[in-house]
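Risk register update: the risk of archive-format incompatibility is retired. Evidence:
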Amino acid sequence: MNQPQVNPGGTVQKTQTMQEIFTTESGAVYQCDKRNRIFVDFAGSVTAYKIDAFLRLKKAVDSIDLSSMANNTDRCSDYELITLCGCDRMYVLSLPEVYNFKELLSGARFVLELNSMLHECLYAQVA
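Archived output:
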């Protein structure tokens, strides 16, 4: 069975069923149509999400106010905890990591939406 694999270093071994969606210097997002999952490679680990969990993760990260996090002098504002209900992964990220994570997820979401729109346009003309 040809499934996506995570190497000991935390990197994703791309298989025939995986497609790279978006990559930055800090991470990458892959899509596996066979397992219907989104793989997020960030902060030294790879996590598989269902599509709805990925969208909830993006919404949670987008709700973080970076400017208030940067302007707040309390020690508790140095890091942000990001968790999702129903997922066993928790991110503990500093301000630059939150910024990089936000950039990665936004880019991946944009590519997914663009792909969906192109797919609708191409197949609407055929029908």
